[in-house]
Structure to design on (434 residues):
DNA sequence: GAAGATATGTGAATCGTTTCACAACAACGA
DNA sequence: TCGTTGTTGTGAAACGATTCACATATCTTC
C-alpha cells in the first residue's frame, strides 16, 4: 500500500541517463552525476538505489552495465510490453505510428474504434471493432491500454476495459477516470498542464499564493 | 521560492468540477464534495481555499459562482491565453486541430516548422518558418510554447525559444529540457508514463520495492 | 602495507504537505 | 431567544519524502 509516488518514474529516468552515459563510453557513474542529470540530490540517488538493492562500490561509484541490468529487470524491460489503443482518432493514430515506443520496448499490437470508417483489421497494426475488445484482450493477455476517445465516451470505454480485466490505463481524455480495484489509471491532461504553466509563468518570482494582506489588526 | 508543487493543478481541477456541478444546477458546495471529486481530504480543500483567500460560509459551504469567479481570475481564465506550437508533425498537428483548447480559453495562434513542405502561412492557424519564431513571438507577445519536434532537435529549439524570451514550455520530446532563469518547463513523456504504469501494474498489491531480505544476522 | 582520498550506504534530522481536531460561527427550529 | 446542527477556518500533530552527516569500504600512492 505505501507507494512512494514517483520513485518508479525516477528509476526510468536513471535508466535513460545511464544509456546516454554508456553510449558516451562511460563505464561507471557516481551518485553526483545522476543527481545532476535528474536535478535531484546525490543522496536521493543513493537512497533510491539502496531501496532497490542496487549496490555500488565504496569508491568507484556504480557500474553502469550492472545498474542497467538490474533496472531493466525491475522495470520489466527484459520483455516487450504489448499495449492497445482505444480510440483511433487524431491522438490515437499519432500514438499508433509513433516509432519511439519500439525503441523503449513498447509495442502497440492493436487499436480499437467504434467508427466503421476507421476499422482496418488488415493494417500492420490492426484497428478492430470495439466490440471485439474483451475477446482480444483476454486472448492476447493484454494488460495495459491507452484511452484516446472523446471525453463523453471515456467513462463508457473505461467500463469496457474494466470488464475485459485490463490492469492499467493511460487516459488522454480530460475526464479524470478514477482507478479502481485491480486497475491503475494515469491521466494525462494536456489542457491542465498548460493551465498550470500559465499559472507558474504568471507568478514566476512574484509572491505566488498571495495570502491576502490581513485587515490591519 | 517555496512553491507548493501541485496546488495550482488542484485549483484547475476544482474549477473543472465546479463547472460540472453548476451545470447540474448546484449553487453551493461543501469541502466534502470537492474532496470526493478529487479524491483528496476535505481538510485539504479547505486549506487550499484558505491559502488563496477563497472564503465560504460557516454553514452553507461555498458559493459556486463565487469560487469560479475567483478561480478564473487566479488562473488567468479571464482572458484568452495565446500559445504557439513548434514542430507541426503528428503530435503538433493533432494539438493544432484540437478543439478542446478553445473550450478552455486556450488559443493556438501559430505553428512553426523547419520543413518547407509543412509551412502554410495562409492556413487558419498559420504554420510559419521557424526562422520567423523570434520576430513573431516578440511582436505578438507570446509567452507559452509547446515543443513537438523530434528528440534530436529539441534542445536546439529550446535555445531558439529562450532567445525569443518565451516564458513557459510544454515539451513533448522525451528529452528532459531543464528549466532556466525566466523560463519554466514542463515535460510530458508518454513513454515514461507507460513505463511507470507497467511498474505499478507489475507490483500492484505485491511487495513493491522489495527491500531485499537481509542476509541473516 | 599504511596513509590519504573518495564514494557509498544509511540512521537521524529536516522539511514540506496533508490530516486531525476543534473553536468559531451561521442557519434553522422550537 | 436559545439550543441544536453542520460546516468552515486554522493551529498543531502526523506523515512522508528528502537531505544531512558520518561511519565504512575501496582504491591509490608511496
Ligand atoms: N487531439 C489532441 O490534440 C488532444 C489533446 C488533448 C486531449 N485530447 C483528448 O484525447 C481524446 C481523443 O482526442 P482526438 O483529438 O484524438 O479525438 P478524435 O475525435 O480525433 O478521435 C476519437 C476517436 O475515438 C473513437 N470513438 C468514439 N467513441 C468510441 C467508443 N465508444 N469506442 C471506441 N472508439 C470510440 C472515434 O471514432 C474516433 O476515431 C479526447 O478525449 C480529447 O479530449 C486530445
Ligand atoms: N507521435 C507520438 O505519438 C509521440 C508520442 C510521444 C512523444 N512524441 C515526441 O513528440 C515529438 C514529435 O513527435 P511527432 O511524432 O509529432 O514527430 P514528427 O516527425 O511527426 O514531427 C516533427 C516535426 O518537427 C519538425 N521539425 C524538425 N526539426 C525542427 C526544427 N529544428 N524546428 C522546427 N521544426 C522542426 C519536422 O519538420 C516535423 O514536422 C518527438 O520528440 C517525439 O518523440 C511523439
Amino acid at each position: 500500500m505505501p507507494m512512494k509516488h514517483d520513485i518508479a518514474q525516477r528509476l526510468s529516468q536513471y535508466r535513460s541517463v545511464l544509456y546516454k552515459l554508456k553510449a558516451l563510453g562511460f563505464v561507471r557513474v557516481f551518485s553526483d552525476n545522476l543527481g545532476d542529470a535528474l536535478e535531484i540530490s546525490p543522496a536521493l540517488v543513493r537512497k533510491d538505489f539502496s531501496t532497490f538493492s542496487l549496490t555500488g562500490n565504496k569508491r568507484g561509484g556504480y557500474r553502469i552495465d550492472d545498474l542497467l541490468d538490474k533496472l531493466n529487470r525491475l522495470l520489466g524491460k527484459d520483455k516487450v510490453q504489448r499495449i492497445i489503443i482505444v480510440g483511433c482518432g487524431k491522438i490515437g493514430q499519432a500514438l499508433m505510428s509513433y516509432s519511439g515506443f519500439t525503441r523503449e520496448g513498447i509495442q502497440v499490437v492493436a487499436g480499437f474504434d467504434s467508427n466503421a470508417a476507421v476499422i482496418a483489421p488488415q493494417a500492420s497494426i490492426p484497428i478492430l471493432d470495439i466490440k471485439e475488445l474483451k475477446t482480444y484482450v483476454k486472448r492476447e493477455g493484454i494488460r495495459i491500454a491507452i484511452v484516446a476517445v472523446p471525453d463523453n465516451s471515456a467513462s463508457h470505454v473505461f467500463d469496457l476495459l474494466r470488464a475485459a480485466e485490463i490492469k492499467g490505463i493511460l487516459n488522454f481524455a480530460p475526464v479524470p477516470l478514477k482507478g479502481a480495484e485491480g486497475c491503475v489509471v494515469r491521466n494525462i491532461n494536456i489542457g491542465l498542464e498548460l493551465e498550470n504553466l500559465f499559472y507558474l509563468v504568471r507568478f514566476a518570482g512574484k509572491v505566488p499564493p498571495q495570502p491576502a494582506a490581513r485587515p490591519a489588526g
